Write the structure tokens for this entry.
Amino acid sequence: MIVSTKVRLRLAGVLLALGVAACSDSPMAPHATTTGSRRALKLVAPSLAAYYSNFSFTLDPQSPHVLSFGPHKVYFPAYSVCDPATSSYGEGTWDQPCEALQTPLAITATFTLEDNHARIDFQPALRFVPAAASDTSHWVTLTLSEPYQLDGAEYSIDWLRPTTGEWVDESLEDPTMKAWTNPVTNSVTRRIKHFSGYNVTAGFVDDGVDIETSWW
């Protein structure tokens, strides 16, 4: 039987595709692609389930706490929460004096992913007792564990402004809220002065480089 050149080329293409599929470790394994200047993401979290979780807890404001929510953490110094019954709340109030909360308070934290980065929601609306820039022991800090490997880029933890839906890097106005990274725990941490029903996310500062992941 005579096989035309066009048919032979088609058969070769099919066989090549089958060979590539056979060499893959798993047909559903994540496959990071690199196109031009795009940077690949390497998944390091054992499970993404922890990034879609709800946690409820009762905060005792009279003693310091490190509260863990799956792989994430919030550190509260003693008497660091403003009493929501008597304090003001909203942009422009974060550094205003307030009465410290004296009694336990129930708080809910919700974690999701936003553009492949950790995201958090807190309820109810709270702000924290102002502390001097040099008084780091009295800062409330948030640590978000990243599901993909930190790669040396500069990271921030941004706040979602509820009135506009805009992600805001608060460290641009207040350097004490600049984030730092821990490559050992693959996490991003920064000081926070408030939290509520809006969200905090860990992500790259815009460096003009796209990030792409794909699946076989």
